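Here is one chain, start to finish.
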Amino acid sequence: MLVHSRKAKGAVWAVFLVLFLPLFALPLLVVLGASFATHWSAVLPSGLTTAHYRAATRGEALQALTTSLLTALAASLLALAAGTWAALAAAALGRRSRRLLDAVFVLPVAVPSVVVGLALLVAFSRPPLLLNGTRWIVILGHTVLVTAFAHQSVSAAIRRLDTAYEQAAASLGASPGYVLWRVKLPLLLPSLTAAAGLCFALSMGELSATMMLYPPDWTPLPVLVYAATDRGALFAGSAVAVVLMTATLLGLLAVSRVRTRATHR
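Its structure:
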């Protein structure tokens, strides 16, 4: 709802700040402050140091960051391809069939992610598809968890799409494949990039299923954050968490630039 009066705008901003600062901004600022501290016995951290960041950007942490980026990129692309294909297929189905397909894709996020990890672990621990102990089961787990968001995002965009462009192209003799590739997908490109960004961010922060699946040579960064805090190294874990947040934000900014260009086109 649009707010036009100055007092109403001030009230809206006041409510926003009251909700935003304690629930979102303050916890992040605490993590940021802890990442530079050696101990925190007062209101503010003390013993400021950058040693935690030196450890968080080299060695095992750097390898884990690379693992997270590769996993998130692969899972995002696979989820976007599967979700887009399913959304396009569902658009041609009846209402009941479309609801059934939507339910199938939403099911992995309707149950705890640790259950999804356990299901994949049991399903792919024996031939002919032996993925347990490999990086591929981690990528598959992330893909299963984020595909629902890609599917829902693209489905919503398809419902809002004006069919006049497709009908015009078809009336001029364009084949269905040409209409899809040169007309429909370009119109959906802003929504596709938004879905890819959402999938990337969710994959970068996924932990529960990852803890069930990851092998020692494919350890994503959230696992290191959990391991550091679990052994009491809160300040080192905070630095790794800040690195994770920064990498995720940079990835989202890159996707946002692609989305802006797609929207202008």
